[in-house]
Design a protein that fits this description.
Helix content is 44%, strand content 14%. It is α/β, with parallel strands linked by helices. The strands form four sheets. The chain has a seven-stranded mixed sheet with strand order 3-2-1-4-7-6-5, with helices on both faces.
Length: 710
Amino acid sequence: MVVAPFCRRLNGGSTTVKSGWADRDAESFVADGAAAGIGRDFALRVYTTRLLGRDPKLVLHGGGNTSLKAKLRDRLGEEADVLQVKSSGSEMASIGAEGFVAVRLEPMRKLRALESIGDEDLVAVERVNLIDPKAPNPSVEMMLHAFLPHKFVDHTHATAVLSLIDQPDGEKKCAEVFGPRLGFVPYVMPGFGLAKKAIEVFECAKPSDGLILGKHGIVTFGDTAREAYERMIAMVTLAEDFIARHRKAVAAAALPHNIAGEALVAPIVRGACSEKDATVEGAWRRLVLEFRGGEPVRNFVNAKDLERVSRLGVITPDHTIRTKNWPLVLPVPEYDKLGEFARVTQERASQFTAHYHEYFTRHNKRVGGIKHELDPLPRVVLVPGFGLFGLGRSKHDAIIAADITEAWIEGVSNAEAIGRFESISEADMFDCEYWPLEQAKLALPSPASGGALGRGLPLAGQIAAVTGAGGAIGAATARAFAAAGAEVALLDTDFAAADAEAEKLGLSALPVACDVTDGESVRTAFDKIVKNFGGVDIVVSNAGAAWQGRIGEVAEETLRKSFELNFYGHQRVAQAAVKIMVAQGTGGCLLFNVSKQAVSPGPNFGPYGIPKAAALALMRQYALDYGADGIRANAVNADRIRSGLLTPDMIASRSKARGVSEKDYMSGNLLQREVTAEDVAQAFLHQALELKSTADVTTVDGGNIAAAMR
């Protein structure tokens, strides 16, 4: 059965877990559901799932799952008992009816008679029994929901509960806190085996409210959506209260006072957490950064025993696909010792990858050598005196890693405050990290990118900055780079224009106010880019404006204004970018819009063409001076592009100067075709992707022999 989605947003959660149930909101969901042909129970299932998903202390990024047992008619009109369960990887905070899949219940329950079943066979059985054969895969915990008899079942990874159960005596603590209301299921890897063990515990212990899944999370159930939800809130509150009553203080380490800022530290960290692509000379695998430095994070990274607790493992197996099993821990970044910080950072990052290779080799041998190694780069970096970085192949992924790490910090801190944190074994971590059903979640489209996957695109993991991004060429270039997978910063003096273009690109695009004629504005803009993404890899220096006049008659002030924007503006941008690229140590690419005027001057256009010619020389100097650093410098020589620079008035003026019609002027080339901003954008993209081209000028003008490079 296909049902129409209905979406009603909820407000965010609080610092402690509290019930968000509101009769008025619930009835609004019921009304919306009725309008979409959805029954009351299912509408309330969606509502309480959102209530759970909106609270990061319960659920993060595709984690957790909920279900409802109901009767539905299949495509043949026959009524069937079904399990409506969250689809794998769906975000509970924003889920709609389309985020649930309906599976025939009785065939699933018959599987309990099996001792075991392989993942592929289980998925095949699940898909055969889908009411809608085109639906996505059900949650990996579907069998747990199927085996339990209750109408509504909720499963979360509540941080406070994990702090209780991630202990050597976790079962004892749970008995003290929850009594007979929750049954305790010893750790079993998520999936079919866990479902079998859970139903055995349920039938033996007969708990009233739910189950604790050792080292994994909590399940509550009920006859109504509200009952299952309120039981979840009540149980998590009991855990929070227990931790608050029993916690002890954590000793902090002494720290220096001259700690460097984020704009200096992030490029060093990002560069160290990159690796050369062994298959393509000159290519790098890079990651995007997300910084967090709130008080709980600083308290954690400043603790005396940071090295010990950082190696203890994840708080729930679900997190390992996003953060790996341990973070990279760095020294304090002292401002006057950044060179030493960079050296140690590189050394520890290399040790991290070597350790990951060894970890993979050892456990892959244990499972028969059937796994393929994931990239070994860190996904979490802890920096004492500073904070943490989440890392990912996109900004969206980096944010997920940072969010999960903050939950990990809270969970480990609370566990250590009431006892001793204990994770699953390293072997269990490996089995979860390399579990195909968990890895499949990483292949799901990113909601932050409008549903695009992005990770396999040529510029995935790279950060591009485009100046003049509010104009036609800049906006087209930003779109082209975003479509190729890059994270994009859009710089313009007109922030509103940059912001409008950024909004079209998705949540991760960054609009930045920047006046390239002002050195401080440029420095501030690039600091903002670094703080947001961690660095920069590609810069398209595109901002410019045209001044006209016979060169012998033009005022010196006019010429100076043009040089400030059309030459020095390029220099300021390139200088700021190169500083970051050198700190990263992974090369980079400087791209300049030099215009046809740099090669073939036009009459009465000297005030514009002369600084553009100087910008062409500037590009070549950067190529010469920074080629050994792997930094390429190229330029695009474009002509007659409708834009904020080539306005209708300008087109009329230049047509008159050439003695041709406006139409003939715009298509006055060998191909007799008007060249667009999108054509220029593709030239910039081509130059960014050509890893062995530098000091190159690409002409985009439809063919003009007079402007051809010699």
